[in-house]
Amino acid sequence: MATPDSVPAPTGLHPRNRHQGHYDFEQLVRASPELAAFVAPNAHGTPSVDFADPAAVKALNRALLRQFYGIDHWDIPAGYLTPPIPGRADYVHYLADLLAADNAGAVPRGKGIRVLDVGVGANCIYPIIGHREYGWRFVGTEVDAVAVRVARQIVAANRALSGAVDIRLQPEATDIFSGVVKPSEYFDLTLCNPPFHASAAEAEAASRRKEHNLGTGQGPRPTLNFGGQNHELWTPGGEATFLWRLAEESALLRPNCYWYTALVSKKDTLPGLYKSLQKLKAAEVRTVPMSQGQKVSRFVAWTFLSPEERQQWRQKRWGAAQ
Q1: Mean pLDDT, residues 226-252 taken together
Q2: Confidence at residue 320, expressed as pLDDT on a 0 to 100 scale
Q3: Which of 4, 295, 300, 311 is the most exposed place for a label (fewest CB within 10 A)?
Q4: C-beta separation of 192 from 115 below 8 A
Q5: Quick one: angle between helices 85-100 and 54-69, nearest 10?
Q6: Cα-atom radius of gyration of the chain, to the nearest Å?
Q7: Which residue ranges make up each domain of the chain?
Q8: Whose CA is closest to 116, among 182, 40, 62?
Q9: Interior CA angle at 225 toward 224 and 229, to 5°?
Q10: Is 64 helix (H, G, I), strand (E, B) or coil?
Q11: How many other CB atoms are there within 10 angstroms of residue 306's CB atom?
């Protein structure tokens, strides 16, 4: 197994990320007038929204999706994860670079590229961005039946996503690929934003720290400004255990995917994941750093395909994707 890449973290968002710099709230309000009710000057006198207010965050996301991705109908139930879109877009763009690195620098585009989103959530953000930016087709899996229903509604309500996104219910909460991926299916990428915390108490403590940083920790219980159901925020054993399961199941589908990938929130998780992938005989492992302001994140990518098998894959699948 090759040593995971070690490259310096970037100093900002990916160059192709549409969300560079400050939000243009005047433009966003024109795209989505309902956002106006949440926009007010911040402490520096510039327009902003209260990022501790779930309704404001949801309205901002709706405006961003409408303006930049042509999504006119987007809504999720209260309490479900409303992710920060710039960070989600960064993951997608760096995934595109991962494919391009094996394709003479050109990003494979179009419906011939299939991507599996593990834990798509009610918000369906990754398929929206991936399809609108690169034309990829997505399968999104989810253990929560409500999230499945809502994500399917988003896909059905937007012509821009027609025929591009398939949402599947994962019937077993402890399974990842089993039960939702057919043996005959092939994916050029998988992506996953794992639940980071090991317990509900740990997730709540993190929310309290976030509230403190936002200056809004006034109530008896934290308000999750980006929301999140239990399965979205925590899992027994935390992200280390989840990623171990993800690696183990990926080894059962060795020839079915070109690159398996997952976000890794905690740097301390990396050595254990590397060790698991080495034991599973991954052919190559890469670690790709990302940056949002002061926040540095990363994803790990691995493949079980030999260089010869990857070349055959590209010739068979990516030539038709251009």
Answers
A1: 75
A2: 57
A3: 295
A4: no
A5: 40
A6: 19
A7: 84-321
A8: 182
A9: 45
A10: helix
A11: 11
Pick the CATH number of 84-321 from 3.90.70.10, 3.20.20.70, 3.40.50.150, 2.40.50.140: 3.40.50.150
Say what angle helices 238-252 and 270-279 make with each other, to 10 degrees: 20
pLDDT digits 0-9 by tens, 146-166: 999 999 999 999 999 999 999
What do you get for the CA distance between the two ends of the chain, in Å? 30
Quick one: which of 187, 189, 226 has its CA closest to 87? 226
- Cα→Cα distances 45→30, 37, 176, 196, 289, Å: 21, 17, 46, 35, 33
Q: What is the pTM of this model?
A: 0.88
Q: How many CB atoms lie within 10 A of CB 223?
A: 17
Q: Which residue's entry shows tokens 């980071």?
A: 196
The secondary structure of 93-116 as a DSSP string is HHHHHHHHTTTTTPPP-STT-EEE
E strand or H helix at 143:
none
Three-state DSSP class for 120?
coil
Distance CA 289, CA 314 (A): 25
Report the amino acid identity of residue 286.
R
